[in-house]
Specification:
- By secondary structure, the chain is of the alpha/beta class.
- The protein has 9 helices and 9 strands.
- The strands form 2 sheets. The protein has a 6-stranded mixed sheet with strand order 2-3-1-4-5-6, sandwiched between helices. Strands 7-8-9 form a 3-stranded mixed sheet.
- The longest helix is centred in the middle third of the chain and has 16 residues.
- α6 crosses α8.
- It folds into 2 domains: 172 residues, Rossmann fold, CATH 3.40.50.300; 96 residues, GMP Synthetase, Chain A, domain 3 (2-Layer Sandwich).
Length: 292
Amino acid sequence: MNELRSGFVSVIGRPNVGKSTLVNRIIGTKVSIASPRPNTTRSQVRGVLNRPDAQVVFVDTPGLHRPRTPLGERLNDAAQSSLEDVDVIVVVVDATAPVGKGDRMVVENALSRRAGPAILVAVNKVDLAPRRDVLERLAEVSAVAGATPGVEVEYFPVSSTTGEGVDALVAAVVAALPPGPRYYPEDMVSDVPEAFWVADLVREQLLARVKDEVPHSIACRVTEWEWPRVRCEILVERDSQKGIVIGRGGETLKQVGSAVRAQMAPGAYLELFVRVEKRWQYRDDALDRLGL
């Protein structure tokens, strides 16, 4: 019998490069919410890939960026801390955009852990980019990695949407893992608490329906869980945003509630409430209360 390999893999990159979609593709089910909005992921989310020969724990992370609020600083801290005590780091870059300062910062952060984890680079969204652009991205990111001598980096063109190249990436991840035990039960795909998951589903549906500055001002948390009744509180920063989130005649909240219930266990009764919490992104007490 083959020896079981197991370990932890940090998936990092700047905002909107497709980290969450890639993790969902690898796990084979939705473990992390995704949207076109920057910083949709606000905490570490672990997805567990179980195979006969391996158990791989992928850690999805917030996008590394230049923070403008205390919330942004905490998101960066969450991403940075994911690089500690992992066996592999997967750096995700976007094939449709040139490698810029943000990508270089991510690669340099990964390479700074040179004595520990293996480094793999996934050039994502190859389904949306011409072949010449994909080759340019590979050359650009390899030039950044090549500036640090003595570190071996592998590169993988992938599409988290179509699955192209993902099997090769996962095979390289497994090959880089040490022999070890299963850290989670074989039927477990995520360690995210159910209440946290529901709150994230509510935020995902809101992100799909509101625009301008409102998405960045939305936070969600489950305040009561007495199954089948679940109460989720939606925080915004201004009174005008409250009306946008509720929608005319409550239509937006109705749509959000229906979409989330469809992803919950049958019989769930989801109550949504909107409350104004002024400048919550800038207040440590509010961020602590939200678990961010």
